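Dear colleague,

Thank you for sharing your sequence with our group. We've completed the structure prediction you requested, and as agreed, I am returning the results in plain text so they can be pasted directly into your records. Please verify that the sequence below matches your submission; if there's any discrepancy, let me know and we will rerun it promptly.
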Amino acid sequence: MTFKFYNSVKAAVYILFATMILSCESGTDSLTVYIEDGIKDDVQYGINKLSEQLNTNGIVLKFTDDKSNSQLSIQTKKENTKNDGFEITKQDDMIKVASNGTRGLIYGLLDITEQLRSGKRWEDLSEKTVNAHYKFRAIKFNLPWFSYRSGENLALHYDTCKDLKFWESFLNMMVENKFNVLSLWNLHPYMFMVQSKKFPKARPFSEEEMKEWQSFFKTIFKMAKDRGIETYIFNWNIFVSEAFGKAYNIGEYSKDSGFWGEGETNALLEEYTREMVSKTINEYGDLTGIGITLGERMGGMTSEERRDWIDRTMIAALKEADREVKLFYRAPLSAGLTSHGTVSKSTEILTREAIENIGLKDDVYLGFKYNWSHGHSSPKLSIVHGGILTDTYWSPKPKNYKGVYTVRNEDFFALRWAQPDFIRDYLSNNSQDYIGGAIIGSETYIPAKDYITKPEHRTWDYAFERQWLFYKVWGNLLYNAETSDDYFTEALEEKFGIEDATGLLKAWKLGSMNANRFASFYRGTWDATIYTEGFTTVGGKFIDIDKFINQPVLDSSYVNIKDFVVNKFKEAQITPIELANIAENESNAALEITKSLKEKYPDNALLQIELNDIEAWGHYGLYFADKIQGGVFLETYRTFGKEGAQFKAIKHLEQAMEHWKAYTETMERYNVSSMPYQFDPEFSWQKHIADAENDILIAKQN
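Please find the predicted structure tokens below.
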């Protein structure tokens, strides 16, 4: 993330250091640093960032072996506890940064850098003690080559994702926001990383091409390690290279990346998989771990057969490798013979037994999709992929594994989102001692090339930069659940050069909650079942008023329209009318704040663009509220024939249509009018105006 620096701040910091830290030998301002022996390389990234900040004011770092003669001491704590937290303490004229590990020291150095950048004087730096809330704080990143899903929305990122400058920028964002795991996903990543000796015809690349791929991945893994970021590669089971399929007449489904259907389990394919996985571990020393998936291309296999295949291939490869790596074991996506999502207690028992007997040194991470594919729905867990879990995985308390929830975002790509209170509620509900962390990311969106913003309005290089606040609130709260709103308001103030961002953060919260409310009220499962910002479902079809009325809720705190009308709900549940009122009131409040800030900062182009997203969320929320009201009155008319109910339904749906038009106009102000979406290659808000109008026609039918 890039922050603006102002001359007044620079001057203040320069004067401070000029008066405090003087080097008599050279006449140059300097800061003397002591670093514990043997850790300098591991904390170099943090040192570099501090040095860059000081250099803007003509101050250089000087290193010493004499701790007593230093002004900054960097050292690890002699404790067995593994935690990414850090301490910043003061002792006379020396500031000490300490942590249980070198990653925490990087975070401590970045914290000092951030404090100085905000204008604090050296003697006024805040002492603090921070403990990491989650140990595992990951980003899910689907690679655009041999991707799980296919389409222009993924393929267009190919060149950007092959550019190491992109990865340097993305990894910088990760470490600044305390994400400590980068997980890279595709159907068969190993063919891009190593070549099989046993199956030479499986090689899809020339020697020169292979060297380029290997250099590419090794550089990413090294850059990540330098920033204290672990790296995992994830695959989807029984996939091979297209060349392997043709040469050995096995797994030919891999040529079109078809992930549905039965997998092949013959000895050649298993031998190839073991070799490729173990060879990858051996040749990539900076790779931290392997992630596996018990799901796609395992159709026709029982839970036992799926487990045994994983044991014979992936687990065997880990044990055969020359070094140990960590394992992320995704819970089975299906308890039956199909590839469809199902759960069962017997499968949970089987999986738990498999992990407990896995025989690896490090704890295993056991992964689940949080509320299936729509993690930005409710802060309360309702379902995972396939349905509702029992307590089998957690009772009794596991000894060699921790659960990790994948908080998927298949709901908003064009709209920015920032709701720290939602994340705090999520953490409050999902921080049991058996939960080790979370993965944030999408299956159908890659945050690389920005194909959404109109070129004339884009002042950033990459898609993740337009969503900078999304990553800031998620990363920092996963790391430190006690992070206050002050931290985010200060970031907003620096980003946009404004004096007070309290109202701006409030508006972000109010507007963003519309995404969460919709996905809690309208139950989604797999990726396409809801696309929140587009108000669409499977096939890219608009959610019409009939489907809206009948769809079950995800979060049992709510009641759907159909049940509400016939009084089939509990008193404690939030009714559709109450939900509509909340959405309307908070959306209007967000619009009011946005209007005020737009008028106050008319020439702040970057701020105007982000305010536009809050405005869009406001119009979206008003559309949602009127659609609920229209649905309630329409179902009341249909069920009881109450006089006037149909008229009220029509009126609310007419108002909803106007809100959708305003939403469309706002979305097209800075964004392209049509964009590729996984389930609609030419998605646009404009074309769904006709669908909003059609709701009115539906309501007018007798």
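Summary note from our side: Residues 7-130 form a domain with the Chitobiase; domain 2 fold (CATH 3.30.379.10).

Kind regards,
the structure core
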